[in-house]
Design a protein that fits this description.
Number of helices: 16
Shape: elongated
Number of strands: 15
Distance between the termini: 81 Å
Strand order of the largest sheet: 5-6-7-9-8
CATH topology of the domain at 4-130: N Utilization Substance Protein A, Chain:P, domain 4
CATH superfamily of the domain at 4-130: NusA, N-terminal domain
Structural class: alpha/beta
CATH class of the domain at 4-130: Alpha Beta
Length: 438
């Protein structure tokens, strides 16, 4: 059986392992010894416990009050018994009875050990709760420790004591992980359980996409660019709305990065999931038009009471605005927080909309110069390459020929051909009926 010196050696190791101070451990050991004494001598036992770590000794002394008649054996002793040890004892004196640590027996030592372990765990739970309570939305990394009934149990790299899981519903079901593989996820919430705090991580929530952009975009880390809203259908498409506190910083361009490098890094982590980055606006009507990108919206009308937007698009834009299985309008609605009802120009007129609806608005008379990121068919990376070369709108590239495009780094011959085809299609539409592509 371990002696007090062995116990103190174990305490030193525990102090290093659990990052607990010696003073805290001494207090835990003293509490444990008192618990063991109470189990052996009675609940009201009184004792002094002194720990001399330098000498490797633990001194334990029971304290019993000398009385004429004992009513509590755990803390009292008769005068006759006391005088058997020392004839000078009088009623009211306190008799000190040394206790050999080894006398506790296996059960008593185990009680002390359990008390220490319990207190250490309580301390760990408090530290975990304090560490992560304010970190919801942060990106955490670790490795898959095990897979239980569909959920991933994750051992975090920087806080291995914390219990962290990715529930089945918080996973991207196009991804498959195995034990020991590295994994990154966003902290969605902290749950209290009987065993302590549990960290619920997610790779399916829109928070995960926001956390990845924060990692890749320094302007977001610095607070210059802010993600105001996000909507996601995991494994398929995400929309985020961004704004800038500095007029000199383009929030969309900052998130896209040079030659699309930043957004591509996020796309790669998401397994190729499509990402739409749109400017945020405090005006719900303008925000709805932006959120429906890449579709071009002719008019929008809002009803603040019902938080409903009616959006009208040209016939050739309707399927793009709706998206596959309604995905685009559904995500736009989630992004804006408003219900969006879509109408084609024909449907709107049949519904009783005014004929001048599709006449050019004063603020749109100069909108023939379309931003490149609103043109359907232009990849995000291509838009980034063109922007780097100073071409940001349709008018900027109208006079370019194929050779001009090939001189740009990152533009392959087939991409140059595709850009020229898009320009031809848009300019042909402009000449024909005055509409523009998106």
């Amino acid at each position: 059986m371990a002696g007090s010196a062995d116990i103190l050696t174990a305490l030193r190791e525990l102090s290093n392992l659990k990052q607990i101070t010696r003073e805290e451990l001494h207090g835990l050991l003293q509490d444990g010894i008192h618990a063991a004494l109470a189990k052996k001598h009675g609940a009201n036992v009184q004792a002094e416990v002194e720990i001399d770590e330098a000498r490797g000794e633990i001194r334990i002394v029971l304290l019993k009050t000398v009385v004429d008649e004992v009513t509590d054996e755990s803390r009292e002793v008769t005068v006759e018994e006391a005088r058997f040890m020392d004839p000078e004892f009088q009623v009211g004196d306190v008799m000190e009875i040394p206790v050999d640590f080894m006398e506790f027996g296996r059960t008593a030592v185990q009680a002390a050990k359990q008390r220490i372990i319990q207190r250490v765990r309580e301390g760990e739970r408090t530290r975990i709760r304090d560490e992560f309570a304010g970190r919801v939305g942060d990106l955490l990394s670790g490795e898959v420790q095990q897979i239980e009934r569909g959920k991933l149990v994750v051992m975090l790299n920087k806080f291995r004591e914390a219990e962290a899981i990715i529930p089945y519903r918080e996973q991207n079901h196009r991804e498959h992980y195995h034990q020991g593989e590295p994994v990154r996820a966003v902290l969605k919430r902290v749950e209290d359980t009987p065993k302590g705090p549990r960290l619920i991580l997610s790779r399916s929530d829109a928070l995960f996409v926001q956390a990845l952009f924060k990692l890749e975009v320094p302007e977001i880390q610095q607070g210059i660019v802010e993600i105001k809203a996000a909507a996601r259908e995991v494994g398929s498409r995400t929309k985020i709305a961004v704004t800038s506190r500095d007029e000199a910083v383009d929030p969309v361009g900052a998130c896209v990065g040079l030659k699309g490098a930043r957004v591509q890094a996020v796309v790669n982590e998401l397994g190729g999931e499509r990402i739409d980055i749109v400017p945020w606006s405090p005006d719900p009507e303008r925000f709805a038009k932006l959120a429906l990108a890449p579709a071009r919206v002719a008019r929008v009308f809002s009803d603040a009471a019902s938080r409903t937007i009616q959006a009208v698009v040209d016939e050739d834009q309707l399927s793009l605005a709706i998206g596959r299985n309604g995905q685009n309008v559904r995500l736009a609605s989630e992004l804006t927080g408003w219900k969006i009802d879509l109408y084609s120009s024909r449907e709107w007129l049949e519904k009783g909309g005014e004929a001048p609806l599709f006449a050019p608005l004063p603020e749109e008379t100069e909108e023939a110069d379309v931003p490149l990121n609103e043109i359907e068919g232009l990849e995000t990376a291509t838009v980034a390459v063109l922007a780097e070369a100073g071409y940001r709108t349709l008018n900027d590239i109208l006079d370019l020929d194929r050779d001009d495009l090939l001189r740009l780094p990152g533009i392959a011959p087939e991409e140059a051909d595709r850009i020229m085809a898009i320009i031809d299609e848009l300019t042909t539409e402009d000449d024909g009926d005055g509409s523009r592509g998106a």
